[in-house]
Amino acid sequence: xxxxxxxxxxxxxxxxxxxxxxxxxxxxxxxxxxxxxxxxxxxxxxxxxxxxxxxxxxxxxxxxxxxxxxxxxxxxxxxxxxxxxxxxxxxxxxxxxxxxxxxxxxxxxxxxxxxxxxxxxxxxxxxxxxxxxxxxxxxxxxxxxxxxxxxxxxxxxxxxxxxxxxxxxxxxxxxxxxxxxxxxxxxxxxxxxxxxxxxxxxxxxxxxxxxxxxxxxxxxxxxxxxxxxxxxxxxxxxxxxxxxxxxxxxxxxxxxxxxxxxxxxxxxxxxxxxxxxxxxxxxxxxxxxxxxxxxxxxxxxxxxxxxxxxxxxxxxxxxxxxxxxx
Length: 326
Ligand SMILES: Nc1ncnc2c1ncn2[C@@H]1O[C@H](COP(=O)(O)OP(=O)(O)OP(=O)(O)O)[C@@H](O)[C@H]1O
What we know:
This protein is of the alpha+beta class. Helices cover 29% and strands 17% of the residues. The longest helix is centred in the middle third of the chain and has 20 residues, at 156-175. One of its GO terms (biological process) is signal transduction.
């Protein structure tokens, strides 16, 4: 059966609306041929000028690839190499192409994609990498590290500000028909200005705008996402809708507020209980939920992780609720 994913040789140069590298007015670097280059301010391009990458340093790795920090045409960028997963090549391909669901989108709470390509020079083992994505480098920390890896105070107002950043990012994504499907603290990056940006679109899907749901994405239920944050309808293999991200947002906000792991115990037991017994993180034990704001946050979380997606707020409603908190 032919793969639904285009092969690397089929990636057209003009994949993105305007390949503007080389066409900018203020020169920041020069190519061998003497043309001026700079990081394109808006449009994503399918060209990476490899020789312009400097000071490449590893940042970390995830399920499908490695991330590096580098200097590129006068800007600090993050370089993500999506590796070919030997056990599941299709999943790693899908992850690469899914990252491009946001290639044309720009928002302050979404990590900006600068360029993406399926070819890389010196990749002698062509089978080792599916492609490379060049993104803005957001900062050195993600929310997972802040919540669990530091002792710095995370007072209520700061949690709500972070939550509002994520909700703004989701409102924007959903308005463009993109569902992230892997919202969790590790996928929310913190900028130097302490602003949250949603990253890692390797599980994302683009919805059929007419239907607003996406019933036919087999990979969604198999490989992608994180079971602790995954909406029960997805665990059951039902259709994807933007409300799946609202569920994951609820778990993420609970983690921000309590700094506890959402569930303990065996994965299979937890999965079963999420679906069959509506198991959710506890809203009782933490002092966070005692005050007036805490009571409102409790109601908001309970709505976000409602078993019935239709009862969850939209990202827009979520933002309003967060902004109205005492
Ligand atoms: N644009 C970026 N700017 C700064 N750091 C980044 C950027 N993108 C990713 N990182 C960091 O690189 C590391 C690896 O990220 P990646 O998205 O590959 O994996 P992950 O989210 O940790 O795991 P998984 O993909 O399995 O969910 C993380 O520490 C992440 O915070």
